[in-house]
Amino acid sequence: MPPDTFQEEFFVGAWHPSADLSVTVPDHLSSNIAVSQGRNWFIMSSRSPFHSTPNGLVHRLPCKSQSTDNSPREVVAFRGYILEPAIHSWSASTDIINYWSSARSRHNGVFATAIIGARGDQIAFITDAFGVASLYYREFEGGLIFSTNTRFLSMANDTIDYSSARILLHTRSVYGDRSLAAGVHRFPPGSVCEWGNGRVTKKRWFNPSDLPQGTEPVSSDRLRDVELSFQAAIDRCLRLQAAGCVLPLSSGHDSRRILAALYAREIPFHSLTVRVLHKDYRDLDAHWASVMARDIGFKHQVVELPAPDEFAVLDYTRRLLVDSHNTEHTWFLSMYPHYPERQSLIFDGLGGDIWGNTGFGDKELIVCEESVKLQKIAETEITDVYDRIVSRKKWPSSQSVRQVLVDYLAWLPDGRNKSCLAFMLMRARSGTGMCFQRLVPAGHVTVYPYCDLDYISTTLAVDPQEKIPPHTLQARCLELFWPQYYAFPGSRRIPADSRPGSGAFDESLKHACFHQLWEEAGPHMAGALYSLLTARAYAIACMSRVHKGLQRRARWWLNPLLMIVAKQAAGKICWTKDRL
After folding, report:
1. 60, 365, 448, 473: which has the fewest C-beta neighbours closer than 10 Å?
2. What's the 3-state SS for 100-154?
3. DSSP letter at 352?
4. Domains in the chain: boundaries
5. 385-394 burial, b if ≥16 CB within 10 A, otherwise e?
6. How confident is the model at residue 132, as a pLDDT?
């Protein structure tokens, strides 16, 4: 489990069209977990340490007049935020209920919503436009169990979805509407999925075909439109109202534009940067963020990574919270002790480099023939590099996994922006996006100004060929409207005199995490790896435990495999047949 001081934000529930269901929370968990239940459903959710909301993320609708008992028959479980009107996970129940009770064709926000309808005979799940807020389900004994985190859906004898696992090996996260467990599915982006009255219906409320086609050239007027649209997105985020703002600040353009917007409004905010090293062990983020803070005049905190053994424990917690579905941002939980002890808006730059920089940054993926575009994107993500490492008896081929991605992206419209949209639905949705979704404690609200639908439309109007680095929309807007912020070097413009640093500490962290993975799997590890790897790769894996040089060379492919095996060895079970 996560450390006692970390209060995870989630909801998990079960629904059956006819069977009676009930749930009991142990006394030692009742202070942190809220339970709502009716005859044929229940939902458990986290509570907020900053809000007096007895039902956590679950909001009850009024009982119908024809109800024969006092149990609630309609509920809304809501995690995330909507910008118009401004509501978030911890808003007043009446505001959340009013929003989801009204018929709306557009939802500008990042959210996961479950709605149990009249008399409990229907359940609906609604996801944001690009499915950034995670929401999963599995069908079981004629009913459904669902959650914002796959780890709450685990069952005895779960088997690995090897297509998902192979995607994880190549891309560092699990792309698509799938999970590492066969039978556990992610709700599709921009969709409404309903069960009830003997039917299952799935429809999309968001259609990317309605977005601009990327035909407009860059001009001063167009850049002004982009900047005004971004500032409007910031204003909409601020209307969500919180006791404070937090800005995780890197040296890239995403967070700098947010920084400029907050500072210009004289909005009090807490900025912090974890000291992590870039290519050749250069200290770019923390160093240049500190220089900006000193020269511009805002408060800033540098967070140092802990000692290797402590970092390995944090990495274990991170893997638990993301259910081993992601290997991005291993440093992320280091920020946790430094969040304010009051509800805050946490600004994340997700999407900035996608809509402003074309995502892949590859012109070929923009201009190539539509008939081969998705295949080329899949080939970019899934190479043949693992073919000589993993056992063909156990794993699907790289080509079959590429086809999985092509099928997943097939609903995207043709046009110049297809690669941008694909990047958002793959790397952003399942990669870095998962960090703020799973690793921020309950009570805070993570907001994504670059995921504002109006801002996305404005930026996608611009020809993506004119966004390829170094001439990105992000850089152009900073240079034109915020030259003071653009002038600082960083990860996007590394100074010519920047020298490589020492990798000794970084290596010690990776070494500690590597051995933590082996320890978790214990005696299960050797047999599992033997079945997963070729004979040569298996020999390298075994020798890497004692040979540091071999370990350094093999970690890029071995670590995600160790993570998958450790997850299976842990065998944490949430549901069994007699418990639903």
Report:
1. 60
2. HHCCCCCCCEEEEEEEECHHHCEEEEEECCCCCCCCEEEEECCEEEEECCHHHHC
3. H
4. 11-207, 210-355+440-486, 504-570
5. ebeebbeeee
6. 98
What is d(CA 529, CA 475) in angstroms, rounded to the nearest whole number?
45
Q: What are the φ and ψ backbone dihedral angles of 45, each rounded to 5 degrees?
A: -150, 165
Please identify which residue in the block is written with the tokens 């000589």. Answer: 388
Residue 197 has pLDDT above 60, yes or no: yes
Alpha-carbon gap, residue 276 to 63, rounded angstroms: 52
On whether the CB atoms of residues 25 and 35 are closer than 8 A, the answer is: yes
Query: Strand, coil or helix: what is 37?
Result: strand
Q: For 122-172, how does the pLDDT look when each residue is reduced to its tens digit (9 = 90+)?
A: 999 999 999 999 999 999 989 999 999 999 999 988 999 999 999 999 999
Please, what CATH class does the domain formed by 11-207 belong to? alpha beta
The predicted model gives 547-558 an average pLDDT of 94
C-alpha separations of 367 from 364, 372, 387, 416 in Å: 5, 11, 29, 7
**Interatomic CA distance for residues 128 and 29, integer angstroms:** 30
Question: pLDDT digit string (tens) for 365-417?
Answer: 999 999 999 999 999 999 999 999 999 999 999 999 999 999 999 999 999 99
Place of tokens 């250069």: 282
Secondary structure (DSSP) of 251-312: SSHHHHHHHHHHHHTT---EEEEE----GGG---HHHHHHHHIIIII--EEEEPP--HHHHH
Q: What are phi and psi of 202, to 5 degrees?
A: -135, 125
From CA 420, how far away is CA 427, in angstroms rounded? Answer: 11
What is the architecture of the domain spanning 210-355+440-486?
3-Layer(aba) Sandwich (3.40)
For residue 448, give Cα distances in angstroms to 234, 238, 415.
Answer: 9, 11, 25
Spatial separation of the C-alpha atoms in residues 446 and 9, rounded to whole Å: 11
Residue range 342-346: mean pLDDT, rounded: 95
Closest CA to 48 of 460, 287, 344: 344
Question: Which uninterrupted H or E stretch holds 199?
Answer: strand 199-204
Residue-by-residue DSSP string for 454-499: HHHHHHHTB-GGGSSTTS-HHHHHHHHH-HHHHTS--SSS--TTPP
The residue type at 365: L
